[in-house]
């Protein structure tokens, strides 16, 4: 058996910050959204690239005056970057150094060619000025913001799940107290009945009836204890660190809590219109509307032609100095000197064009557009309906359950007064033992029902606070 821990609502929420698989699962949703955004950002991050090779051969030339170059050393290094404005850029340096020997063509030693180039590619239609890529980037940011809001909402929902269990434990604890108290009364009545039977002023039927009542009270206590263990099991499932601990409720004030629930109910019922400032779902709706607009821009361009203009400016230098008849010596430095001392600049420009043939892409576009529209519309409609119905229906439910609690308390008080009278009549032998037990059972049922109604009021409020997480009342500030 583990340590004994007393706890209240605040303790449960504090413990959940340490180790709660449910919160870890909630965090993964946000991380997934951030991961998708990072993948998109990767496309626009600058990249350094490079490669190199070395080749050597002993082959003979096919034509004597065309020498076989060996060895050949090549290398390239550069940096490239994509921009959301529909531009791709690349800056690159390449070198080619080779040697050859031929009786006809001469001697070439480390003849080097170096090229410095800058390439710019611009989208002329589909992603002109980045209308597609920018919409994708914005949607990725919006999705991350929405995931952040949903994490906050789900975290609050997890905390409320812990609080529900806590108040279920409080309710069953109160019911156990009542059942235990009435069990003691029933045992006392059995003892009195047995004494009367022994003194020949009672009968065995009376004793048996009281013994049946004791059995009923005992069964009630056992069943309530079973419910309590189930709630503790749920709690330990959500908070695994409590697995081996013996949990006990810290002192609490049920009447104070019910007062806080009523105060919170009044704050809610005073709102004539939907209090969107009490919820984060209005921000979620705003983000979804923006996502829908951007997604339409993306989908509208899905089957468009792809036209790109590209241009390259480059400078080429060759390091190949004559060192004698048919003899040439090159170097890397010589190729750069050639570029520096002579105008070796050139350029290249052109267009690339991709036109989808057939209607495959258009069909895909229509399907994707319809899918996205219906998905986002359903998300927005469901979110809006949930917010509206939660306020309108649960606000009414809270008003009704509060009336039930008030009525139940009046009924319980009346039954207590009646039981006092019934006990006097029973002591005077004016009524049967069955009549007395019926009234005792009625009072027990009324007291247990009152607690159930109070717990129902708390749960209705929790249902409301799961949506309207920022409701300004004391019960929502745990």
In short:
The chain is an alpha+beta fold and 478 residues long. The chain has nine helices and ten strands. The mean pLDDT is 87.
Descriptive notes:
The protein folds into three domains: 1-44 and 130-241, Outer membrane efflux proteins (OEP) (Up-down Bundle); 52-83 and 87-126 and 306-354; 253-305 and 360-473. It is elongated. A hairpin with a 3-residue loop joins strand 4 (87-102) and strand 5 (106-123). It has helices spanning 9-16, 21-43, 131-198, 204-238, 254-269, 281-300, 332-341, 360-427, 433-467, and strands at 4-7, 47-55, 72-83, 87-102, 106-123, 246-249, 306-319, 321-324, 327-329, 345-354. The strands form two sheets. Strands 2, 3, 4, 5, 7, 8, 9 and 10 form an eight-stranded mixed β-sheet that branches. It has a two-stranded parallel ribbon with strand order 1-6. 19% of the residues are buried. The model has no long low-confidence stretch (mean pLDDT 87). The longest helix has 68 residues, at 131-198. By secondary structure, the protein is of the alpha+beta class.
Biggest sheet layout: 8 strands, mixed
Regions with little confidence, pLDDT below 50 for 5+ residues: none
Helical segment tally?
A: 9
What percentage of amino acids are in beta strands? 15-25%
Oligomer: single chain
Mean pLDDT: 87
Helix content: 55-70%
The separation of the N and C termini measures 30 Å
DSSP strand count: 10
Number of domains: 3
Name the structural class. Answer: alpha+beta
Radius of gyration: 41 Å
Principal-axis shape equals elongated
Note the run of SSEs as H and E. EHHEEEEHHEHHEEEHEHH
């Amino acid at each position: 058996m583990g340590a004994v821990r007393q706890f209240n609502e605040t303790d449960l929420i504090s413990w959940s910050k340490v180790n709660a698989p449910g919160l870890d699962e909630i965090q993964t949703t946000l991380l997934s959204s951030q991961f998708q955004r990072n993948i998109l950002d990767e496309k626009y991050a600058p990249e350094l690239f490079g490669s190199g090779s070395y080749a050597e051969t002993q082959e003979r030339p096919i034509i004597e005056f065309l020498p076989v170059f060996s060895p050949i050393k090549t290398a390239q290094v550069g940096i490239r970057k994509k921009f959301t404005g529909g531009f791709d850029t690349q800056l690159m340096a390449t070198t080619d150094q080779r040697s050859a020997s031929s009786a006809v063509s001469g001697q070439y030693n480390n003849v080097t060619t170096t090229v410095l180039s800058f390439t710019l590619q611009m989208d002329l239609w589909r992603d002109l000025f980045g209308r597609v890529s920018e919409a994708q980037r914005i949607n990725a940011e919006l999705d991350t913001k929405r995931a952040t809001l949903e994490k906050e909402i789900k975290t609050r929902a997890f905390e409320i799940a812990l609080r529900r269990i806590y108040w279920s434990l409080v309710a069953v604890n109160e019911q156990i107290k009542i059942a235990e108290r009435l069990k003691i009364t029933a045992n006392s009545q059995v003892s009195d009945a047995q004494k009367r039977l022994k003194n020949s002023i009672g009968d065995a039927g009376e004793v048996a009836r009281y013994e049946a009542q004791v059995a009923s009270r005992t069964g009630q206590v056992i069943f309530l204890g079973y419910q309590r263990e189930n709630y503790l099991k749920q709690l330990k499932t959500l908070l695994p660190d409590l697995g081996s601990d013996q949990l006990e409720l810290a002192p609490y004030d049920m009447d104070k809590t019910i007062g806080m629930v009523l105060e919170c109910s009044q704050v809610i019922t005073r709102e004539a219109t939907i209090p969107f400032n009490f919820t984060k779902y209005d921000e979620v709706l705003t983000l979804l509307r923006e996502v829908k607009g951007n997604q339409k821009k993306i989908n509208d361009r899905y089957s468009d032609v792809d036209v790109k203009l590209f241009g390259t400016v480059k400078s080429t230098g060759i390091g190949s100095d004559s060192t004698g008849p048919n003899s040439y010596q090159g170097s890397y430095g010589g190729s750069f000197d050639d570029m520096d001392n002579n105008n070796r600049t050139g350029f290249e420009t052109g267009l690339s064009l991709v036109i989808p043939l057939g209607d495959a892409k258009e069909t895909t576009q229509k399907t994707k557009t319809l899918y996205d529209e219906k998905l986002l519309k359903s998300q927005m409609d469901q979110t809006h309906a949930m917010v509206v119905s939660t306020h309108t229906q649960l606000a009414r439910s809270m008003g009704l359950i509060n009336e039930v609690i008030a009525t139940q308390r009046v009924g319980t008080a009346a039954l207590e007064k009646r039981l006092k009278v019934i006990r006097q009549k029973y002591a005077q032998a004016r009524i049967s033992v069955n009549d007395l037990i019926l009234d005792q059972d009625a009072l027990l049922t009324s007291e247990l029902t009152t607690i159930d109604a109070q717990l129902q009021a708390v749960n209705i409020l929790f249902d409301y606070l799961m949506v309207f997480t920022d409701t300004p009342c004391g019960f929502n500030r745990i």
